[in-house]
Amino acid sequence: MSDKIKLNVTMKYKADSYKQANNLCIVEEIVPIPDADFLEMATFPCRDNPYIKLHKDSMFADSEAMHCVLFIAEKQGDGFLVESEGYDYARYSQYIPHAGDIVAGQQRRLSEVSEKLYAALEKNLDFLAAESRAEPNYRIPIDAVFDTPEIDECLLELAGEILKEQTEFADIKLSCNDRIITIDGDKYDTLRFISPLRVDTDLLVTLAPVEPEKALEYATFINNEIDADMMLSIHYGLMEHCSDKTLTDKVYSVFPKVEEMGNELVGVTTVKLIKPLDERDVETLKDFITEQYSQEWGKRFYDKGLYYGEDRIYVGFGNADDFQLMTEEEWDQSQDEGLALQQ
């Protein structure tokens, strides 16, 4: 199985800003570099750089894709994707937030599947070897080496991981029954959470709330920034950062967005489910998303802020005073109760 990361992103020519677009990039190398060197590379992408010079032979373009090197800040964890086109500077580039976490998550998944396959093969080969000891010229058919339900399951899981590398196949599920592989292309069940959103802007030395009508103007911009932030998480979203096996067995992906509801901008979290959730699972999932919004992923959008022309806005998915994750039914009910109180 190829362990190369594939991204749908257009590389910027002599870039000075970063937005998501559609184009396939394949990561040929992942190169950790000191944070100070990473900052210089990202700050001055058009300046000759010794790391790019050292790895430029791995960067090229062909009819399939742009083949790139992903440089990752060793401690801070963000990434800088480069295709230098033979030059010593970042001729084409893109900034990848949280690249280190995403790469570690992919490697962890592949390692788990590989270990399961190794264990299943080892068990079967030990069994076949034990059977053969009584025969001086015993021959083991190749089919017998791989013909066990455990190995079938592992190979099927590996095939699923290969399919996930292609965005258009991300929702395909494979299952095996009576030695026949079944492809299920139906979408996963979807659960949506709604939550209040906080949008602030700079006001001298303090932050001030953005008026609801003005906040609505930022919707497309904010969603574009979220898409750019999720470049390495196009299949799993925030679930890349989840280590709770109870959730990872049942939840396929978690993606944040903003939407207009009732003339205000709100946070919308779309969850794709592998298996149904019980009440305890839903609460555990809410706790995970809340932590991502308030302590982990959300800091990128509120603590650091986003530049919108000459303005700087701070988008708080978990910073609203009345923050609460609600299902769509709960949200609608809360809005109806609010209207009833106003009347």
Please describe what this structure looks like.
With 343 residues, the protein is an alpha+beta fold. The chain has three domains: 6-97, no CATH class; 102-184; 189-342. Helices cover 37% and strands 28% of the residues. Strands 1, 2, 3, 4, 5, 6 and 7 form a seven-stranded mixed sheet that branches. Strands 13-14-10-17 form a four-stranded antiparallel sheet. A four-stranded antiparallel sheet has the order 12-11-16-15. The N and C termini lie far apart (62 Å).
If you compute it from the alpha carbons, what radius of gyration comes out, rounded to the nearest whole angstrom? 24 Å
N-to-C terminal Cα separation, in Å?
62 Å
Helix and strand run: EEEHHEEEEHHHEEEEEHHHEEHHEEEH
Mean pLDDT: 81
DSSP, total strands = 17
The poorly predicted ranges are 16-22
Q: What structural class do helix, strand and pairing data support? A: alpha+beta
Determine the strand fraction and express it as a percent band. Answer: 25-35%
Number of helices, where a helix is a run of at least 4 consecutive DSSP H or I residues: 11
Please give a quick description of this structure.
The chain is an alpha+beta fold.
Key terms for this structure?
3 domains; 11 helices; alpha+beta; four-stranded antiparallel beta sheet; 343 residues; single chain; seven-stranded mixed beta sheet; 17 strands
Question: Helices and strands in order, then pairings?
Answer:
Elements: E1 6-8, E2 12-13, E3 24-33, H1 35-43, H2 50-55, E4 60-61, E5 66-73, E6 79-83, E7 92-96, H3 99-132, H4 142-146, H5 149-164, E8 173-177, E9 180-184, E10 189-196, E11 198-203, E12 206-209, H6 212-217, H7 219-229, H8 245-248, E13 251-261, E14 264-273, H9 279-294, H10 299-302, E15 306-308, E16 311-316, E17 326-327, H11 328-342
Parallel strand pairs: 3-5
Antiparallel strand pairs: 1-3, 2-7, 4-5, 5-6, 6-7, 8-9, 10-14, 10-17, 11-12, 11-16, 13-14, 15-16
